[in-house]
Amino acid sequence: MNSKRVGVGVIGAGVISSNYLENLTRFPDLNVVAIADLDQERARARAREFGLRHLLVHELLAHDDIEIVLNLTVPAAHFDVSARILASGKHVWSEKPLAVSRRDARLLLDKAGRRGLRMACAPDTFLGGALQTAQRAVLAGRIGEPKSALAIMQSPGPEGTHPNPAFYYDQGAGPLLDMGPYHVTALVQTMGAVRRVSSVSSTARAVRRVLVGAGAGTEFDVRVSSQHMALLEFASGARATLVTSFDSGIRRDLLELHGTEASLEVPDPNRFAGTGRFVPLHAEPEDVPAVGSTWGRGVGVLELARSIRDDVPERASGALACHVLDVLLAVEEAARAGTPLTLESTVASPAPLDEDWDPTAATL
């Protein structure tokens, strides 16, 4: 195993970069070197904040000390930026989604495979202690044979908290592609690959209004469905109901797994921590505290780096992200077509982490 820390660079200095860098700069196995952005001043400010070098994109991609590059650009740019990173000979960690089409996602995986590089992707919330504990419980047979699941994300939409929310209602976003990856990744983690999808969609309002910030009162068009209700059929024979909505005054982030012996209430799939609840069919419920790391965004980058050094597959793989994207696009397409769709992709559930997996340990 190479004893050198893994060098990391970041492309994209938006809000999410701060969440990543807060953690990545604290992990001793990583050496965060530099950040780049088309907005040079924004990149300089983020570099000053975290004590990094500010580079132009081509300079960052040519930097010898950088092995993994985070692609934190907007979804529409994910394919082009990730392709450039791979062409430079560096591994990729991409924010979700991997791409906005199946074709582009597969092209990235093929390009990485030909060059012997890793193409990994968010979300990494499934590596947090809460979802890891749920996966271990299912694998240990605590709920019996998994038979069904319920996954719900409901909110009134981001216009009440985000000053520029229009992109959430444009192509490549909406509640399905923005929030669906968290729930579907958790479902694949615990229930396995999805085989077939049925769905319906709706849009409560064709026009929305910005509610906060300098643009408050500005109206914008809704260009995608703001609610999907889907039935996912897994290769195992299990089934799940998935609801993603920006049309609800009631807020929910819910995941329930139901088996032949018991049910498991799982904490919010968009979080790394939380206490679940084990509910036997004919006995009293009991709390299930999270066992494992509850560090936030960035643990997937660290797990990728350690996997590269150990020459083993990473858990937040491009193959997993590609299957999740396939599921979400199939939900959209099945709603438009009014007929179930069978998926061509499949993937194995990633193996759980050891309970004592520690991001703060120096292992390299």
Automatic annotation (TrEMBL):
Keyword Oxidoreductase among UniProt keywords: yes
Domain GFO/IDH/MocA-like oxidoreductase: 132-265
Keyword Oxidoreductase among record annotations: yes
Domain Gfo/Idh/MocA-like oxidoreductase N-terminal residue range list: 7-119
A Pfam family annotated for this UniProt entry: GFO_IDH_MocA
Key words, A-Z: Oxidoreductase
The protein's name in its UniProt record: Dehydrogenase
Species annotation: Streptomyces africanus
